[in-house]
Amino acid sequence: MKWLFSDGPATAVFTSRSIAKGVDWIYYVSHDADDGAWQFLPYSGPPDESEAAVVSLSAIVGAEPRVSELADLPLGWHAWRETPEAEWVRKANDQS
């Protein structure tokens, strides 16, 4: 499979332990404007500190190949889906 992200496969990304272990699915993705960080979060919302995990971008793509559909998500944007089979909805983050 061709690598679609401009960030390399070893890029560290933020997620939850439940996603990292394959127990939960990715509901929400953020590509942060301030530092370019990626966040891949479950339906239950951002994990508390004890449930947070840092993994490689390639581990996320391997666990959930459909996140490659978001490889072109601009800095400062986020995306979500209502079910694992649903299409991603994209939107610019509000700059309050």
Structure description:
The protein is an alpha+beta fold. The protein has two helices and six strands; from the N terminus they run βαβββαββ. It has helices at 17-20, 57-63, and strands at 12-16, 28-31, 38-41, 52-56, 77-80, 89-92.
Which characteristics define this entry?
4-stranded antiparallel sheet; 2 helices; globular; 27% strand; alpha+beta; 96 residues; two-stranded antiparallel ribbon; 11% helix
Number of strand elements:
6
Structural class label: alpha+beta
Query: How would a crystallographer describe the biggest sheet?
Result: 4 strands, antiparallel
Number of domains: 1
Could you tell me the radius of gyration in angstroms? Answer: 12 Å
State the helix count.
2
Elements, N to C (H/E): EHEEEHEE
Helical fraction:
10-25%
Shape: globular
- Strand order, largest beta sheet: 3-2-5-6
Q: How much β-strand is present in the residues? A: 25-35%
The parts where pLDDT drops under 50 for at least 5 residues are none
